[in-house]
Amino acid sequence: MAEQSLSGLTDQQAKEFHEQFKVTYTAFVGLAALAHLFVIAANPWW
Amino acid sequence: MSDVAKPKNPEDDWKIWLVVNPATWLMPILLTVLAVAIAVHWVVFAVGLGWGA
To answer: pLDDT digits over A2-18, tens only?
Structure first.
């Protein structure tokens, strides 16, 4: 059995998945930031 | 144990997927994020900062 990672993914697969994970996470943070700006514009909590 | 190379982030971030298999753990991760979001909204509304506060 060749050298296998703990998760079973190869370096290539891990890098490939991480690229998509970063895109999705960036979109999530962007949307959350936008939502917070709307709340601040409508009704600041301080 | 001390001779294990220290990761350099964010360039080594991808290596998490060599330990955590997303085929198993992606949905639990996303559902945990959802649970945190629901909890935060719950508290914000509970302390009276909801609509029209």
So the answer is: 789 999 999 999 999 99
Contacts of B15 in chain A (CB under 8 A): 14
The domain ranges of chain A are 16-40
DSSP sequence for A1-46: -----SSS--HHHHHHHHHHHHHHHHHHHHHHHHHHHHHHHH----
Phi-psi label, residue A32: left if phi above 0, alpha if psi -120 to 50, beta otherwise: alpha
- Closest partner residue to B49 among A8, A13, A45, by Cβ? A45
Only one residue has tokens 């600041």, namely A44
Using a CB-CB distance cutoff of 8 angstroms, which residues of chain A are in contact with residue B21?
Answer: 7-9
pTM score, two decimals?
0.86
DSSP string, B15-42: GGGGTS-HHHHHHHHHHHHHHHHHHHHH
Q: Which helix (H) or strand (E) holds B8?
A: none
